[in-house]
Amino acid sequence: MAGAGGGVSGRGRRAEVRIGTSGWIYPAWRGVFYPEGLAQRRELEYLSRRVNTVEINGSFYSLQRPERYRRWHDETPDDFVFAIKGGRYITHMKRLRDVDAALANFFASGVLALGDKLGPVLWQLPPRMTFDPDRLAAFLAVLPRTTTEAAELGRHHDDKLPAEPYLTVAAERPLRHALEVRHPSFDDPRCSALLREHDVALVTADTSGTWPFLEEVTAGFVYVRLHGETELYTSGYTDTALRRWARRIGHWHADGLDVFVYFDNDVKVKAPGDARALADLVGVPGTSPGGGPDRP
Q1: How far apart are CA 159 and CA 225, in angstroms?
Q2: Which residues on adjacent β-strands are paired with residue 81?
Q3: Which residues pair with 225 in a beta bridge?
Q4: Nearest to 256 by CA among 12, 80, 18, 52
Q5: How far is CA 285 from CA 4, 5, 136, 280, 295, in A?
Q6: Predicted confidence band of residue 159 (pLDDT cuts 50, 70, 90)
Q7: pLDDT value at position 140?
Q8: How far, in Å, CA of 87 to CA of 57, rounded?
Q9: CB 3.0–4.6 Å: which of 14, 91, 142, 216 could bond 3 by disulfide?
Q10: What is the distance between the alpha carbons of residues 246 and 253, in angstroms, rounded to a whole number?
């Protein structure tokens, strides 16, 4: 069950709460979260029986291949959802300018092979990038809003794809986007207005005070990234802190908003335990509590 309580979205269906981790391939997790002897190829399968979503972050570093997305789809339960992180070539190198070909390559690379498990696309901006209304507006305007639009955009890919393009769409579905900003200049009503106009979620990021903490709701869903309560990427969350987050999630969900939460405090293997603890507080069960591939 993905929902938690009785919230209903503006589309007439029950709003969802999904809580998971940012990524799953971490050597430090082996023998601590992942059982000793568990084959690396089964780590996603194991995690996906304990949380109901995960953020794909390998796509941030390089274009992935369709067969990887298909494998990830097949290794996870039917009601599982992936968020996917947009490429740093777009956000950090091109800095959102002149990105038509790069966006086409990203959406042709196999993202659509996730099918009905494809959730929001996360665009994380670099810390030194300041708010430029015209640049942001132009970027938001070219983002595809459905899987059909994403496939059409992907047809304009160039020769930088590492494999044959994947442009198959079994059924048209909405495609949602979230923006994580890291410069205080984005704390500007013009930014919120732009995001609201394009129905793009402003990410609420807890970064131990390193970057701005913004909670404004700008879309029909909420996207939260928890990078560590007191130390970036490292510290876990106390029970008191998790209960505060559970209350926030409850308020958003009661307002009919889908909520996606990802723990990115992976260094000391805090992320999976914190995700499961918060899910328990909110009332979101694991897909198969206590089950999963515990053996190699």
Answers
A1: 33
A2: 53
A3: 205, 262
A4: 12
A5: 9, 12, 37, 7, 22
A6: very high
A7: 98
A8: 9
A9: 14
A10: 10
Tens digit of each residue's pLDDT (9 = 90 or more) over 16-43: 999 999 999 999 999 999 999 999 999 9
Q: Tokens 């999904």 correspond to what residue?
A: 18
| Rounded CA separation 188/131 (Å) | 8
Centre a 10 Å sphere on the Cβ of residue 171 and count the other Cβ atoms it contains.
8
Q: Which residue has the tokens 């949602």?
A: 176
Domain spans of the chain, in order of start:
17-282
Residue 56: its H or E element: strand 53-56
- The distance in angstroms from the start CA to the end CA of the chain is 27
Q: With beta carbons less than 8 A apart as the criterion, state whether 253 and 279 touch.
A: no
DSSP three-state, residue 98 = coil
Q: Which amino acid is at 263?
A: F
What tokens were used for 21?
Answer: 């981790």
Given strand 81-85, what is the order of strands in its sheet? 201-202, 177-180, 118-124, 81-85, 53-56, 17-22, 258-263, 221-226, 204-206
For the residues 1-20, what does the mean pLDDT come to?
65
Tokens of 176: 């949602």
Question: Any idea which residue has 């305007």 for tokens?
Answer: 141
* CATH class of residue range 17-282: alpha beta
- pTM given for the model: 0.93
At 14, the pLDDT band (50, 70, 90 cuts) reads confident
202 backbone dihedrals φ, ψ, rounded to 5°? -85, 115
CB atoms within 10 A of CB 45: 18
Share of the chain above pLDDT 90, in %: 90
Tokens of 204: 């609420």
287 pLDDT tier (thresholds 50, 70, 90):
low
